[in-house]
Amino acid sequence: MRNLGLRSRVSASIAIISAFLLLFFLLVFTYSFPAQTPKLLGVLVSHHLEFMLLMVGIGVVVGAAIFYLMHEEVEIKEKESKVNAELALSLLNPDERKAVKLLLEKNGECLQAEVARLDGMTRLKAHRVAQSLEKRGIVALGKNGKVVTMELAANVKSALV
Predict the structure, then answer these.
(1) Is the pTM value of this prediction over 0.90?
(2) Strand order in the sheet with 147-152
């Protein structure tokens, strides 16, 4: 199954989910309307509890199958976004890169003073870095008295995280 293309995996996933849902709705129909159930599906009515337990097991298997079919694609997308994030960070100068990495470590928000405490950074450098990143829309600056906060832009944060 590893050799299957994305379309084949998606198609297989849809087919598996569709078959599971069909079985589920047949089971619900036969339980809800036992008098209208065709004779062919009569076994579902007479052994309803067993089929419900079987559906739980089938649900777990279906979930595992979908995970197996799609996890490779998710891993590929994660690797691509890491490469894109590294590329985006490489376009920044070293001081800006340090500031953005600090912001990422701090969940997208920190004080400008924290940036100034990084190695090789001064208060003036931190101020210039913050202004430069704000001009390019990478961060938003906020002031609370003399304290300046830096917050990663939502789109940048989602791209880099």
Answers:
(1) no
(2) 109-111, 147-152, 139-144
